[in-house]
Amino acid sequence: MSEETILILADAKDPQVQFLFKRLQGVKIVAANSAGELTEEAKEATAIFQWSGSKELLQQAFAACPKLKWIHSRSAGLEQTLFPELRDSTVPLTNGTGVFSPALAEFVLGAIFYFAKDFRRLIRNQITGRWEQFDVDTAAGSTVGIVGYGDIGRAVAARAKAMGMNVLALKRHPDKRKEGDVADEIFGPNQRIEMISKCDYIAVTAPLTPETRGLIGETEIAAMKHSAVVINVGRGAVLDEKALIRALRNGKIRGAALDVFEEEPLPAGHPFYAMQNVLLSPHSTDHTRDWLNNSMEFFAEQCERFLDGKPLLNIVDKQLGY
Asked: Is 9 domain-assigned?
């Protein structure tokens, strides 16, 4: 029996939690879905898995567990996980980066084809029984700019490149390239206007941090081509929604495909719902049929590394927030 205790912030009846109990037999695993379930046994935890608990519950668990050695977040984004005490502590934090990237990248490609082929017009004509031929665009030869060139951004780049697209990328340290990088050109944060002005499609894949909040705002949108399409699969607040709505209403840009929003669920009556030049997804682009299973499988593998004393994957820079 391992001497480590794993506290998972979730309902013990969740199918994926039950899977974890079976997968890690011999490991003491305790589930808690509320502060009242933080038993004395739970307070012995050396690792916490933030599966579906609230940020407040994680804070309470963090304060109640003095033996903590590691925290893992199911999500890749950490704005609902990081809090000052955790940020300032020496406890390492890991996240689900990589688990969701393929599905998110596929949505970006889908959005590109949606606008290039004007699928909305095709569907509208089919519904009304109208036979109308019109010209369409090709994705090949067009340029996609990726704002936030992390794991999701690289997944977008690989797929866009395979379709014959030109790939530009924006990242914090443009001089640091990874093996197998396919971007044609990488820009730094102070070059984002230059990059955006060259793009037919702008894929926002950046996490939400103090530095990226409002990163794509009035100035950046004004620099876009009139034919440009913005695709956001990062976090809603990275994109200035008010500025985007004005640009969409005025025809300043061609359209937007959005999976994430400043406020979720998107409230009834929000302008995005009625816009013909917006493709809207209710933050479910990465919700493949097996996304929960994949998330739990990744944690189980991480947990095995933890128990074996091996280096953990996806260690977060808590000061940067990713």
From this structure: yes
